[in-house]
Amino acid sequence: MKRSLQIGGAFVGLIIGAGFASGQEIMQYFTSFGTLGLVGGILASLAFAFLGMTLAQLGSEMQVNSHKGVIYQISGRYLGFILDFLITFFLFGVAVVMFAGSGSTFNQMFGIDPMVGSIIMVGLTIATLLLNVKNIINIIASVTPYLMGVIFVILIYSIFTMDLSWSQADNLAKEQPAAAGNWFIGALLYVSYNIAAGAALLIVMGGTEKDSKVAGRGGIFGGIMLGLLIILINVAMFVKIDVVAGVDMPTLELANQIHPAVGVLMSIALLGMMYNTAVGMFYAFTVRFFAPESKSFKPAVIVVGLAGFAASLVGFTSLVGKVYSTMGYLGFALILVVIVAWIRRKKLKQSESMYFKHLSNREVS
């Protein structure tokens, strides 16, 4: 159980920087649909749990240290090449966005020069990646309980200080910009975008566990925790929609509403989210090319980290921003492939079970 919770916590920690950091993502994909956004959160929770379970189990069964083997196995030579290339590109791109975002957060909350803030995050990321993969999973997972605690405090405050009626909040929420035409597509796009970013390390995390059932439970736990976070943040912003409407970083605004000290705690949580995602993305990117036990791995970590820092300074983040929507469509292709792989595994296990049952009956007769 402990190992499953570690994998689940690391799954949450990995996804959280790309999908939760500002609160704007939850606003556009869930809160903007009003009450139906809550239903979208439940749908997303179930989808994350299923996909997390399947990807972690695939990594465990194949005992891989990179996503490449699993992607080619479940999608074939040609589609596998395309998915592998795009996933690898986005791993680097999302990590670069985290470097740039951490610089902005350090500047906004603590008055530190953005470049210095980015250097701090790059240094922490490189130092972490020089550890072994199990230590990395433990570090990423350790931030999750802290984040859940801060979000829960914000939720309780928001509910007890709600100034709007439910119908007023529902109407005002629906006036906010939405990322999709309806709540159902919004929930699926959100899951798709995040799975496209997180699948690689989830496969790698599964590969560190020999028992596929333990790995699968970790994916389920992580999916449920992600869903719970979506619902908590969504409810907190929904009941205080009059406060966060039009704000770039709604979660930080809600924290500052409580007390500046809570705002500082939330800023630390935001930096923790970005750190988690940067570490996870860069690790998965590096092991795509270098085995973690090879002599080339640690020098490669330093080179990749410095390249990511340079990219965050020369406008690479704007390029990644333009192609972020593409990640949703990549995610749909990946989700379809994962579902097909799950169906095939179920049929194979059923066939094996029937075969062994047949043999047993023959031996008895």
TrEMBL record:
The keyword Transmembrane helix applies. The chain crosses the membrane at residues 33-58, 78-100, 112-132, 139-160, 180-206, 218-241, 261-285, 297-320, 326-343. Signal peptide: none annotated. Keywords: Membrane, Transmembrane, Transmembrane helix. This is Transporter. It comes from Solibacillus kalamii.
